[in-house]
Amino acid sequence: MNRKLTRQIRIGKVVVGGAAPVSVQSMTNTKTTDVTGTVHQIQRLTEAGCDIVRLAVPDREAAIALGRIKQAVGEVPLVADIHFDYRLALTAVERGIDALRINPGNLGDREQVAAVVKAAGSRNIPIRIGVNAGSLDKTLLEKHGGSPTPQAMVESAKGHIAILEDLDFYDIKVSLKAHDVPLTIAAYRLMSETVEYPLHLGITEAGTVNSGIIKSAVGIGALLAEGIGDTIRISLTGDPVEEVRAGNEILKALGLRNSGPTLVSCPTCGRCNIDLVPIATAVEDKLKFVKKPITVAVMGCVVNGPGEAKEADVGIAGGTGQGILFSKGEIIKKVAEDRLIDELFMEIDRLIEEE
Ligand code: SF4
After folding, report:
1. What is the predicted pLDDT for the residue at 188?
2. What is the pLDDT of residues 273-308, one digit of tens each?
């Protein structure tokens, strides 16, 4: 896949843009002032494969709490999400934040924005500009016919970018989120043609775990497949750990990430003589604890299963009362139905150890 090479920035230890791998980002939904709860959630997110974590900073107490959170999570790159109050951004910088998510046009007067930019610049802290279709400026909306358009979103982002560039600041990342998928895709395409800055992709307010993942996969996946995008976030109404799992699956599906297991499982058909759904679900659950890149197949029948999943490193296929364990399309042995999952994971452990 040919990716668009954007200007490279660094968020803590994570390199973003240029030829760097696409990063997965999520956002805590704890109160940032609840340091223990937030640190615990950040640890769960990174354990699931999250590269960058954003935190809401609605007030001074939350900005101050960032220092203790940063100390507890060490190298995990943290982004402070701040609206309207430049003092919160200054406190976040002082407390060791790795990046700011602010819109300079909404932060204060020129002097106040300049103070934030100076503080960020002195510590190599990048700034993400986040345009949201739902909160576009009224004048801009009127100019573009009264409703959000890709052009209006890009114009809004360009306005914020111009403020930073005018202050000689270029460590910028941009996001243009909407819950409308075609609008989001069109806006990012236009932005990608317009600037060299790295882009953070997301479908905002995408929905619950089921519908939100589908909308995000369509929108973010379409853009990534065109080579657009440097970081992604799947916004879900649910446990943010699900956002990370979904983000990683999208990257793996496009060959943009090679970490953790990939599950291949068949849809079943009239040839299937085994209750495959609970088996596949149980395998998927247990695979959450496997960190190595390994392709695992769960197939409904021995006739076609091993052949259809011959790319899998290891797999099981159901029969009648018993199934088979196979690797790369070759049968290893027959296994009683109630032993299929255990034998599969013994073989996964053996392959990982061998590696
Ligand atoms: Fe049907 Fe067997 Fe293919 Fe599954 S592997 S879809 S059961 S033919």
Report:
1. 98
2. 999 999 999 999 999 889 889 999 999 999 888 888
Q: Is the CB of 19 under 6 A from ligand 1?
A: no
Q: Is 215 within 8 Å of 207 (Cβ atoms)?
A: yes
* Ranges for all domains in the chain classified under CATH 3.30.413.10: 262-354
Among 264, 277, 303, name the best residue to mutate to test ligand 1's pocket (greatest count of ligand atoms within 8 A of Cβ).
303
Sign of CA dihedral 28, 103, 147, 194: negative
Helix (H) or strand (E) holding 336: strand 330-336
> Would you state the structure tokens that stand for residue 236, as one six-digit string?
């879900």
Question: Contact 234/220 with Cβ under 8 angstroms?
Answer: yes
Nearest CA to ligand 1 atom 6: 268
Instruction: Residue 326: name the closest of 338, 339, 313, 337 by CA.
Output: 313
pLDDT tens digits along 80-128: 999 999 999 999 999 999 999 999 988 889 999 999 999 999 999 999 9
- Does ligand 1 lie within 6 Å of residue 268's CB atom? yes
What residue spans in the chain does CATH classification 3.20.20.20 cover? 9-253
Average pLDDT over residues 241-261: 93
Structure-token match 């030829």, residue found? 19
Instruction: Fold for 9-253, please state it.
Output: TIM Barrel (3.20.20)
> Taking the C-alpha atoms of 10, 15, 19 and 25 in order, what is their torsion angle to the nearest 10 degrees?
-110
pTM: 0.90
Please give the average per-residue pLDDT across 217-223, as a whole number.
Answer: 97
Q: Are 248 and 259 in contact (CB under 8 A)?
A: yes
Alpha carbon separation from 20 to 76, 143, 257, 353 (Å, rounded)? 17, 37, 11, 29
DSSP annotation string for 222-243: HHHHTT--SEEEE--BS-HHHH
Homologous superfamily of domain range 262-354:
Sulfite Reductase Hemoprotein, domain 1 (3.30.413.10)
